[in-house]
Amino acid sequence: QFHELFPNFQKNKFFISGESYAGHYIPALGHTIHKYNPSASVKINLAAMVIGNGFSDAKTQSDFGNYLYYLGLIDDAGKKEYKQLYDDLLVALEDENWSEASNIQSAFIGYLYHKYINHEVSPYNYLPGEPEEPQNWIQFLNSN
Fold this sequence. Notes:
Strand 1, helix 2 and strand 2 form a beta-alpha-beta unit. By secondary structure, this protein is mostly helical. The protein is built from 7 helices and 2 strands; from the N terminus they run H-E-H-E-H-H-H-H-H. The protein has helices at about 1-5, 20-35, 60, 65-70, 75-95, 100-115, 135-140; strands spanning about 15-20, 45-50. It comes from Cuerna arida. Keywords: Carboxypeptidase, Glycoprotein, Hydrolase, Protease, Signal. Its EC number is 3.4.16.-.
């Protein structure tokens, strides 16, 4: 509909981008554009799809107890608890109990991560200390 309202933009390159759960929607949208573009009355000049930190497959992407264990960030008890929660997640996914699967997924980060790993460690960067880069970016973005 955007290109119908603003046809002057139709020839511009079109990029689909997002992060996290957009990892589920971006490929679907890109596939739909690619599939229907040849017969569409209004063409979309799809140039690229960009997914940052995409979450597209809960079954595969939630099994990170071993990862944290072998980094030394959780102990045997933490590894067992992660394994149990992961097994519960697999059952919820198999049963298509999306509400329960969502609650379990939230527990991975919200409960277990903070129970076994202190708040000083980011799940995206386990190196100690706060990196200076965010401050540099803030300064750059606020500059003329």
